Every structure is written in C-alpha cells, then in structure tokens.
C-alpha cells in the first residue's frame, strides 16, 4: 500500500470532484465528435452500442485509474513508481504525461476555433459558412491569438490549485454548460420538422450495425471519458480515503454520457429541420450548424450560445490535460504549481503553433504527405492530423492498454479491489469484485486492442464476423 504524499491537495467535496472529473471527460469529444460519429454511423443504433460500451468496458476501466490514483496519491509517473519502483513500467506514466502535453497543444487550437465562432455573426454575418470556416482556420492572425487566449484561461484555472482553482471553476462552468445546452435543445426540438431528427437519433435501425459501427462506438465511448492519459489517475489522487470511488466514478460516467446524449438532442433535430444531412463528419459543427443557425429564428443568438457552451466544455478538458503534467512537476520536482503551470503552458502554446498553422496558413504543414504516407493517417494529412493520430489515437490507446495490464496484473486486481472497497461499505464484494476483476484483466485489454487495431486499419470485429458468417 502506497504512502500518501504529505500535504497533498484534495477536493473539497464529492460534487466538486464529480464536476471536475466530468468536466475533464466532457469536451469537444462529446459535443463535437459524438454527434458527427453518430451521424456517420446510422444514428440511434450507434447510440445504443455506445451506451453498452460505456457501461461494460469503460466504467470498469475508469475504476482502475481512480483506484490507482487514490492509492498512491500521486501523478501517473509517481503512482506507478509507488507500486513498481524499478523497471520499465514508470515509462507508462511518462507516456501519460507526454500525451497530456501534446494533445493539449492541438486541442487548444480547436478550442480556439470554438471560442472564435462565438463572434462569427458579428465579424462575418453574411458569409457562406463553408467559405468562412476555411478562411478562418487558415488565418494565423486569428487562430494563434485564440490558441494563446485559451492557454491563458487554462493556466489561470490550474494555477489556482485543486480546490480553489479547478474545483471552484468546475462548480461554475458545468452548471452554466448544462443550462446553455437546455436552451439550445429547447429551441432545436421545437423547430418545424424536428421530428425527423428525433426519429433518426432515438429510433434504432439495427440493420445498420456492422463491425465498423461496433468499433466506432467502442472507440468513441472509451476516449470520451478521458481514459488512457492519466487524467483520472491524477484526479483520483486528490480524493480522500473516505470517498466512495464506485459512486463518484459512476457519477462521472453518468454525467459525461448525459452531456453526449444531450449534444445529439441539440444537433440532430435542428439539422433535419433545416434539411441538412447528419453525416457531414467533422464539418457538422463548424460548417453545417452555422448554416442551420442562420436559417432559424433567433439563429444568431442560438449560434453564439452554442459556441459559448462548446468553449466551456473545451476549457474543462484543457484544464485536466494541463493538470496531469503540472501534477507531475509539483510531485517530482522542486517546481511550485504556479511555475509548473506557466512553464508547461508556455511550452504547449509554442508547440501548438504548428497545428494552428496547419490548416491552410503554411502549405508544408497543411499537407504533410511528403513525410507521412496517406495510407497511415489519411489523404493529405496536416501536422494537426498527424499529432491527433500519434497522441490522440495511438498514444492514448497504448496508455490505456498498458495501464489496464498494470492495474490488473502487475499491481494486481486484488489490491485494486481493496482500494475500491475503502469508503464503499458493502457495495463492492463477492461476485461483483470477481466480475470486475475479469473485466479489468481480460475483457478491457482485448477491446482496447480492437480499438488500436482499428486505428491502423485492421477491423478485428469485422474479421471475426466474416469468419463465422
């Protein structure tokens, strides 16, 4: 059993932890990625698969990260060293820290786009949405300052510390996010013709399910909870021993999933009501939705509200990404929290500039097929695409796979169970613990391998289906 770090910061309350951890998970992945993945993969049937993956795969793994963090009271590197001081396993914690830095570098660029779109109708009210988006993201005078602004906001929250910074702002931002989403949902579902969107989103057509849809649902469910990069280890390390990890982790997953489902209720009724198509991919948010907003009554107001809430969701995620790295420097070096936040934030901004310039501003960053094969990342990959492939897909997946193996086999599921039982009373005993151990040691690693294989173009589920068909 690891010895807690002296004077370790802690969350002031369960609701503070739940809102902060849910805020870490809730971000562009829920409000931007979930709707377009749902639109591309057939609607309601994809949603049902997504919910099943959250419940049976992601939640057991979430408990593993939280238990490892609280047991050690340290960042991902320190948490692994507290259990396995020698050997290569500490490199997995280092991978989590690096993943946090590099995801934040390009995530902040996209977050800056969302923030800039709040003012779109003031800057260019009559410009075609597609033309505006392509010009906007290619304009370094716009996107680099927006990246810098978002990093300043993120640093400001993290400098405040766990309770007075992250928790205090989570208690403000998450309720505001919820209220704004309800405003947009109400306007969306009351539009004439919104019923077709609700039918697409809520009435499943199971004939649309194939191996590809299953893998996409699994990948979206797993990555939507910020798993595999050490964020939940770090946030779990600030929890007191009396806290019920099962209840707290369950609330985090519930809140995160609810926001994703609400994002669908915001978007699909409006998209169908305005005669647009739901399978527009990543352009759904920045191109299709502005066109939808322009065509509806009070569209400028609703559009501004939508991008305010998207910016809030992005900020709660960037805070957790920075906190993973800052926690490492505070725990393992002589850096103060303030010094670490500014140092890491400054480095991240500098490294984010190439991603900001990779969308039309600089040709050789916009199309890097001269360096990377189109077969690996996609046609004409940009610097941002390559960063997302390496850190947002491969590194995140590898981190999750190795952490599940570490908790299940190296630390041992029995030790993780003992940690989970602290503060949980009689709710985690008997057959429940045996089932969780099986999920953690066998099922989670297998399904994470399926995700990793799909990232490199190998659909194992489709292969199995074809094998037995």
Question: Would you write up a description of this structure?
Answer:
The chain has 469 residues and is mostly helical. Helix 3 packs parallel to helix 11, helix 3 packs across helix 20 (431-455) and helix 8 (140-159) crosses helix 15. The termini are far apart. The protein has a domain at 14-338: Hydantoin permease (Orthogonal Bundle), CATH 1.10.4160. The model is unreliable at 1-6 (pLDDT under 50). It is globular, with a radius of gyration of 21 Å. It has 21 helices and no strands. The protein is 76% helix and 0% strand.
Entry summary:
It is a multi-pass membrane protein. With 469 residues, the chain is an all-alpha fold. The chain is built from 21 helices and no strands.
Which features does this protein show?
469 residues; mainly alpha; Hydantoin permease; 0% strand; globular; Na/ntran_symport
- Stretches where pLDDT falls below 50 for ≥5 residues? 1-6
Q: What CATH architecture of the domain at 14-338 would you give?
A: Orthogonal Bundle
Helix content: over 70%
Query: Could you report the average pLDDT, rounded to the nearest whole number?
Result: 87
SSE pattern, N- to C-terminal: HHHHHHHHHHHHHHHHHHHHH
CATH fold-level name of the domain at 14-338 = Hydantoin permease
Strand percentage = under 5%
H/I helix tally: 21
Straight-line N-to-C gap: 49 Å
Main beta-sheet strand count, sense and barrel state = none
Oligomer: single chain
Record field, number of beta strands = 0
Just give the CATH class of the domain at 14-338.
Answer: Mainly Alpha
Task: Look at the helices and sheets and give the structural class.
Answer: mainly alpha
């Amino acid at each position: 059993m690891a010895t807690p770090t002296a004077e370790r910061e802690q969350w002031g309350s369960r609701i503070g932890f739940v809102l902060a951890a849910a805020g870490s998970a809730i971000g562009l992945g829920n409000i931007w990625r979930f709707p377009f993945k749902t639109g591309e993969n057939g609607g309601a049937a994809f949603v049902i698969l997504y919910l099943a993956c959250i419940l049976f795969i992601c939640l057991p793994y979430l408990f593993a990260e939280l238990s490892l963090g609280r047991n050690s009271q340290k960042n991902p590197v320190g948490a692994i060293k507290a259990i396995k001081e020698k050997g290569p396993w500490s490199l997995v914690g280092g991978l989590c820290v690096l993943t946090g830095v590099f995801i934040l570098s390009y995530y902040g660029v996209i977050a800056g786009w969302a923030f800039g779109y709040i003012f779109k109708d003031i800057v260019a009210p009559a410009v075609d949405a597609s033309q505006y988006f392509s010009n906007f993201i290619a304009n370094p005078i716009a996107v680099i300052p927006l990246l810098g602004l978002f990093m300043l906001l993120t640093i400001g929250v993290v400098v405040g510390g766990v309770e007075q910074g992250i928790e205090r702002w989570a208690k403000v931002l998450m309720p505001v996010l919820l209220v704004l989403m309800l405003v947009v949902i109400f306007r969306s579902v009351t539009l004439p013709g919104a019923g077709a969107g609700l039918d697409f989103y809520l009435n499943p057509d199971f004939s649309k399910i194939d191996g590809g849809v299953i893998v996409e649902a699994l990948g979206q469910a797993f990555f939507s909870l910020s798993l595999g990069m050490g964020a939940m280890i770090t946030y779990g390390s600030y929890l007191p021993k009396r806290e019920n990890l099962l209840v707290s982790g369950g609330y985090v997953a519930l809140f995160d999933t609810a926001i994703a489902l609400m994002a669908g209720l915001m978007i699909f009724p409006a998209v169908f009501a305005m005669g647009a198509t739901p399978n527009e991919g990543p352009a759904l948010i920045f191109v299709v939705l502005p066109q939808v907003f322009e065509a509806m009554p009070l569209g400028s107001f609703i559009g501004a509200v939508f991008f305010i809430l998207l910016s809030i969701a992005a900020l709660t995620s960037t805070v957790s990404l920075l906190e993973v790295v800052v926690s490492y420097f505070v725990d393992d070096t002589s850096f103060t929290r303030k010094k670490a936040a500014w140092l890491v934030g400054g480095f991240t901004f500098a490294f984010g500039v190439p991603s900001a310039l990779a969308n039309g501003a600089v040709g050789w960053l916009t199309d890097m097929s001269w360096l990377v094969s189109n077969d690996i990342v996609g046609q004409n990959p940009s610097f941002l695409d390559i960063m997302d492939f390496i850190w947002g897909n491969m590194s995140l997946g590898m981190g999750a796979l190795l952490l599940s193996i570490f908790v299940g086999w190296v630390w041992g599921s029995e030790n993780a169970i003992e940690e989970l039982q602290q503060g949980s009373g009689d709710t985690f005993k008997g057959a429940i613990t045996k089932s969780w151990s099986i999920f953690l040691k066998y099922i989670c690693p297998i399904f994470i391998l399926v995700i990793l294989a799909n990232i490199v173009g190998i659909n194992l589920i489709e292969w199995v289906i074809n094998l037995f068909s």
